[in-house]
Design brief:
By secondary structure, this protein is α/β, with parallel strands linked by helices. It has 2 domains: 210 residues, DHBP synthase, CATH 3.90.870.10; 78 residues, Rossmann fold. Helix content is 29%, strand content 17%. It is built from 9 helices and 15 strands. A hairpin with a 4-residue loop joins β2 and β3. α8 runs parallel beside α9. The longest helix has 17 residues. The chain binds threonylcarbamoyladenylate and magnesium ion. The site of magnesium ion has 3 residues, from loops.
Length: 329
Amino acid sequence: MNAPPSGSTCKVLADDAHGITEAAGYIRDGQLVAFATETVYGLGGDATDDDAVVSIFKAKGRPRFNPLIVHYADISEISRDVDFNARAQKLAAAFWPGPLSLVLPRSANCRISLMASAGMDTLAVRIPDHKTARRLIVESQTPIAAPSANKSNHVSPTCAEHVISELGSDIAAVIDCGHCTVGIESTVLDLTVENPIVLRPGKVTIEEITSVLGTTNVMNTGGNSPNGHDIKSPGMLERHYAPHQPLRMDAQKAEPHESLLGFGPEASHATLNLSPSGDLDEAAANLFAMIRDLDRRDFSGIAVMPVPETGLGCAINDRLRRAAHGSSA
Ligand code: TXA
Ligand code: MG
């Protein structure tokens, strides 16, 4: 019921009222639809429907212990499913709609499939800053569980073609909304503990979160529990975002067999440049598409020039470290 016949590929829907209505029909019917958010494309299914949530895990090849982010169009719906505490309200006022996912306790009457929480008593929620995503949620009349629309551990998709190449035969449809503007996944913040913890660095930085929460001590463990043991955000396994070719960081130049992914004005010799002007927003928006592009070329490795470890650069380097982990080069 949840996938088109094997070998066939999904429908590509236009980013207009007709396309969204058709996509919402599939979601209500328990099928899967990929759609853009401001960060990356999501693989969406009805978050209240166990079967739809199971088919998300199956399509991605994702381990069932790794919970999903649930997407909403408004806070009143969110507060039915989680305990939306004062800290969450402050952060929502500052950053929503936007690329911040909040991990909160599931409410007593939570409607969301327990599988989306991977059996835990917490749920990650966010309101995406993308009109199509929010219209899809409203028309589907249900919160939408949506991990990034890639096979588990691969590079996240930032355009419809990326989704079709990996998941085209596993989903009913993709809404083609062009390229994602942010290009890197949301910041995941655990608000279930006294000192909030950044479980995954993203566009919203720890400094911005700290300034909204005032005196609260915000901790950063994003990426520091890499072996899968004692892990609060099981998606933060070391080997993630992996291209097929080995990737190495902090390179000044490429070896003969490698492509070179550059950053900044000094990188005129690079095969591709994340941002010739050295702009971190531009680099984040280009990151996954350029890694995918280089991975398809006739090289046997990807060398990446240094990206500054400040602001959004922390999230970019986090994804690069994961892509590099386990690489022999
Ligand atoms: O930008 C994004 O967040 C994209 C778009 C589609 O919204 N979604 C996304 O989902 O990146 P996904 O599934 O690829 O990554 C979700 C991350 C994983 O690291 C997962 O372990 C963590 O969030 N997560 C989800 N629910 C959690 C929970 N209850 N507790 C701790 N971590 C959680
Ligand atoms: Mg992902």
